[in-house]
Design a protein that fits this description.
By secondary structure, the chain is mainly β. It is built from 5 helices and 66 strands.
Amino acid sequence: MTSSDGFTGPPAAAGPTSRRHLLRAGGLSAAVLAGGTLTATPAAADSTDRGGNDQGGKGTSAPLALPTVAALLALPAGPLRDGTLAVVAGYRAPGDGGGLLARWDAGSAAAANGGTVLRPADRPARGRWLRVHDGVLDFRGFGHFDASAPADDALDAMVNDPSVHRVEAHTDLLLRRRHTYHRSHLVLDFGGHTVHTGGIERNTHDNPFGAVLFFQGTVTSDTVSHELPAEVIERTDAFPVPDSGAFRVGQWWAVQSDEVAGGGSDERELQKMVEVTEIVDGTHIRVGYLNGWPLAAGRTVTWRRVEPVVGAEVHNLVFLGAGQDTGAVDDEYTGSHPVAYEYAVDCHVSGIQATGTFWPVIMRRWCTRYRTTGCGLKNPPTVMYGGAGYLTQQIYCLYGHVADCTSSNVRHLNDLTASAYCQVVNCHGDGDDEGGNPFTTHGQYEHDLLFDGNSGLMDIANSGAQWGNAAKRITVRNHVCSWFTANTLITDLTLENVHVVPRPTFDPSGTLVVNADGAQLRGCTASLFAVAQRSARSDRPTTVTDCAFDLPAGQVLVQTPVTAPVHFVRTIFTGLDGAVLRGSGPVRFTGCTLVGDPGAAPVSVGAAEVVVDGGSLTNTGIALSAVRDQRLAVGGDAALTGTNSAGALLSRAAGTTATVTWDLGALRSTAAGDGTAHVRVTDGTNRYSAVGARLTGGRLALAAAAFTGASSLLHTSCTEEDVTREGLPPDGARVSATTGNLVL
C-alpha cells in the first residue's frame, strides 16, 4: 500500500508470519508472532529470500526486534537496507502500549513527528523509519502516556495523515492549541479519558469556533445569487435557479434568503446547507430539504457551493475547561471547549462529559445529518454571557438528533437556531435557577422540531426581534419543568403531556404561556397558564384538551391581543379568583371543570363570544365585561353551583351600553343561598333567551331597565325551584317571562 509519504508497504513476511500479524505489533508479543529468533542484526546483511532468490538488494530476512523507540533510533542509518522491517516492543518500555511495526524508507526526507515518521539519532538527511499501520493510531505511539506534556503535535500528525481513519487515546492527555481541520472520514475516540486544557493558547474575540477540535468544510468561489421570479411555496424541495447547469447532483450548497423587509438584521426564513438531489429542468433543482417558510417573488436567494467535512466524529472524553475564572470578558479568550463543526455532514459526537467550558461544548453551524448523544456539561463559568455556557448550540442545522444528554447549572443544554427537522430526546437539565433555561430556540425561523421526554426550563423563539422571534411546527412531548414560555411568533405549537411544576427557588407560579396561532395542548398541567397572541399564520384551531391548571388569583387566562378562537376541552381550572379572559376572540369551554372559592371573584370575560357546553362551574361564575358587544351561550347540561364574591353566577358589568346576547339552554344552576343570583342583568342592551334551564334556589335578577328599547327577554320552558324573581319586567311585545315555565 502507499502511505501519505508515498512509500510502499512491506512484502509478505517469510514463513508463517502474515502482514495482519505484523500490523498488530504493539508490544513484545508481536515479536513472537513474527516467528523465529529475532535479532538486532540489520536485515540488509542477507540480500536473498528464504528460497535463495536474489531480491535486488531488498531486505527480506526476519524483522528486527527492538525493545523501545529509542533503541530503534539508535541504530546507525548507514547499514540499513531499504524495506527493512522492525518490530518495536514499546515506546519507552517494552509492553507500554506504544510499540509499533516500522519500515525503513531509505529515500524519505519526511519531517519526523515522533510517531509515524521517526528519524534516527544520527540524523541522516534521507532515510526514515515509517510506521506501518492499518489506519488506527494511538497517542501512546507518540510517547504520550499521561497529561504531563502537550500532545498537540501528535494530534496534528495523526489527523493530518489521510491514511489514518481512527485516532484513539488510552490515557489522559494535555492539549494546549486550538486545532482547525478540514478532513473527512475520521473518528477520534478518547476512550473515556480526560483531556486537560490548562494553559491553552488564547482564543480570538467572539469565537465559539475556537475549539480544541474544529472541523470546517471549505466554501468555494462558486456563487449564484438571484431574485425569485415567483413565490417559493412552503414545503417544497424544488427551487428555481437562473441556470441549473451551474449545479451538479451530489454537490452541497449553503443557501440563504435575504433579510425580511422591515425586520431584524438577521431575520431570514432560509439558511441551510443542502445537497442537490436532482436537476429538474433548466431553471429548477431539487434539494434534500422541504422548505419550512414561503418566500415571495422578488426576494433574493444566494447559493454558495461548499465542500463539507464528512464523517468526522468525536467520542468518549472527559473535558476540563480552562480559563482564569475572572469574569466573562477574559474567559472569552482563556476558556476552552472541545468540539466545533462548520459545513459538516454526518459528523457525530458522543460521550463527552465537560466541566467549566466557556463556549458551547459542541458548537455546530451549517451542519446536516448528525447525532449528539450521551454528552453533558456542568458548571460553566457564566450563564449570563450570550453564546456561553451551552452544552450544544446548532445554527442553520438540519436533521440533527440530540439524545441522552444532561446539564447542570448551565445557560442552555440545547439551542436550535434557524434549524429544522431536529429532535431532542431524553435530555435533562438541572440547576437552572439562574434562568439558564436548558431548552431553547432562537426564533430565527426554526421549524419542525421535536422535543420528547426531557426535563428543564424551556422557551421557544424568544431571543429578540433581531432574529425574527418566529418558529413553526414545534412539538414538545412528555416534558417536565417549572417554567415554559412560547408566546412569541410561534405557529402550530403542539404540547403533549407537558407538566410545569411550581418551584420556589425559581418560578413559584409554574408559568406556561403559549401563542394562540394554532397552538394545541393535550394532557398538560401548570399553575400560571396564559394564552397570548402575536401572530396569525395557522390554519388549525388553538385548542387546550384534557389539561389541568391551578390558576393564581387575578390570572389573565386569555390576554388582550388574542383575537383567535380558543377552545378548552375537558380541561380543569382550579383556584379561580378573578381570572380574566380579556381577548376579543371567541372562547369555548366544552366539558370543562371550573372551580373557585365561595369568596372569590367570578371569571371576567371580555371575549366577543363565550360558549359553555357541558361541564361545571363551582363557586365561580362568568361576569361579562361588556366592553364590546358580547354573546354568552351556556348549555349542554352544564352545571353551575355555589356562589362567588359578586353574588351572581352569570352577570354583566354595570354602566356599559354594549349589547349582550344571552343564550341559555339546557343548564342546571344551583345557587348557594338566597343572596346569589343565577343570572343578574341590571342595565345595558340585552337580548336574553333562556329555554329549558333548571334553576334551584337563589334569585333570578333581570331588571326592567335592562330590557328597554332594542332589548328582548324570553324565559320559557324553564324549571324554577325555590327561586326568587327580582325585578323582572312585565310581559310585553319584547318580553315573555311568565308563561311556559314550571315554578316550584
